[in-house]
Amino acid sequence: DTAVSQTPKYLVTQMGNDKSIKCEQNLGHDTMYWYKQDSKKFLKIMFSYNNKELIINETVPNRFSPKSPDKAHLNLHINSLELGDSAVYFCASSTRDRNSPLHFGNGTRLTVT
Amino acid sequence: QKEVEQNSGPLSVPEGAIASLNCTYSDRGSQSFFWYRQYSGKSPELIMFIYSNGDKEDGRFTAQLNKASQYVSLLIRDSQPSDSATYLCAVIGGDYKLSFGAGTTVTVRA
Fold first, then answer.
1. CA distance A69 to A51
2. pLDDT in tens, A65-106
3. Rounded to a whole number, what is the distance in Å from the CA of B79 to chain A's nearest CA?
4. Residues A43, B88: C-beta atoms closer than 8 Å
5. How big is the CA angle at A80 (ends A79 and A83), to the nearest 5 degrees?
6. Nearest CA of chain B to the CA of A89: how many Å?
7. Is the CB of residue A15 less than 8 Å from the CB of residue A83?
8. CA dihedral B41, B97, B4, B37 (to 10 degrees)
C-alpha cells in the first residue's frame, strides 16, 4: 500500500519521442507536485496542483504538460523529448496546509538517448 | 543568489561522532523548514521539520532554527554508517513554494 506511487520506474527513450509518467497517491492529500532532480541532485519544482487546479507552473518548456484527472492523480506528459530532459522526476503530495511537508514517490529515471 | 544554500560537502565523519549540517535561506518571509534524507537512487524522506526558533530534537537528530540569521542546521549525534546519505534542506518561502538546497552528502566512516 504505497502512499505515493509512480510508473514507470525507469524510462529509456529516443529524442523526439513523446512519453508519460503517471502518479497516484492514496494519502487523501489535496496537493500534488512534480519535481525534477538533475544529475547534480538539485530538486526543482515544476508544477503543483491543488484539488485538480494548477497552482504552480514554474518556467518549464511547453513540451511538459501536467494533467490531474482527480486529486489523487497527477500525470506528466512530455512531448518531443530532448537529451536535456534526462533526469529523475519525482511526484509528491501534501495536505492543503501550505506549510506541510511533502511525501515523495519513488521517482522515475528518464534517460533520453 | 540561490534561495536555499547548503555546504556542498562531502562531509566525512567517524562513526559515533556528531555530523553538523548547515543551511541558509534568502527569503525572510520563510515559515517552515525541513530536512530530508536521500539515499542514493532513492526518493527523499522527511526526517525533521521545524517552524519556530530554537532547537527541536528527535532521537539522534536535532534541528536548530535562527530566523534572525536566516539559518537552519541539522545535527546528527552518534553517527552511524546507515546515516550515510545526502541531506536536503528545504524551505517554504513567503510565496508558499518549497525550495530545496543542493544537498550535503554525508559519509560515516566505520
1. 10
2. 999 999 999 999 999 999 999 999 999 999 988 778 899 999
3. 23
4. yes
5. 120
6. 10
7. yes
8. -30
